[in-house]
Amino acid sequence: MPSITLFHTPPPETIKAQVQQMVIDYLTDVSQVAIAPSNPLYQLYQYGVGFEVHLYLQAMDGTRNLPVELIVALDEHDPETVLGFVLYQPVIDDAQACAVVYMAVRAAHRRQGIARSMLQQLTARYPHVELACTVNKVAYFEAMGLQVLAARGPQVLMNTRDYRTDGLLPVLDVAPIYSSLEVRQIHAYLLAQHGKKVMTEAEKKRDRHLDQLTYQARLFVDERLGG
């Protein structure tokens, strides 16, 4: 079994790099946008979400007034290799609560209990855990003890309890990332590569997909909770 390790201060650079790379590699699974690799905008969101995670990891040094902690599963045969991670935020004014920001397990190591082990470590530290996922992952997290609370945009909000915490959860403002020079440069490159017509359709496809996910989440929660 992998070694489950908690970091409440910045982890080594090798671990940071692997966590960021996993988010980039599994963007469709971990991102709220859930954009497909076939969409020309995929590369832009890889940068955006990767940089977002970079900022969360930076915040672990305590200089941004943004509480962040990290749990990683390390390969027992190669302790420098990250097999999975949970990046989460402790809730201010509620010592028992936290919210999962991003979570992933390497594809080759899934269905081996790694996610369950990390969540067990997390709930031992914070019994009141909240996360959001797409409809197709609800059963997966229900099997780990979480329950459906509500629909939140394209995702379903889940919790280890049947209510949300009243504590404060500061959020990272990601808007500056997507208005940054780097993102504008990536967009300009994609525009030159694919053309305006293709990029416009890519944006429409992304929006239609988000609308569909939002509808699915709302319908699922209404049926589940009798709303």
UniProtKB/TrEMBL annotation:
Gene3D superfamilies: 3.40.630.30. Residues 28-175 form the N-acetyltransferase domain. InterPro entries: Acyl_CoA_acyltransferase (IPR016181), GNAT_dom (IPR000182). It comes from the Bacteria. PROSITE patterns: GNAT. This is GNAT family N-acetyltransferase. It comes from Pseudomonas fontis.
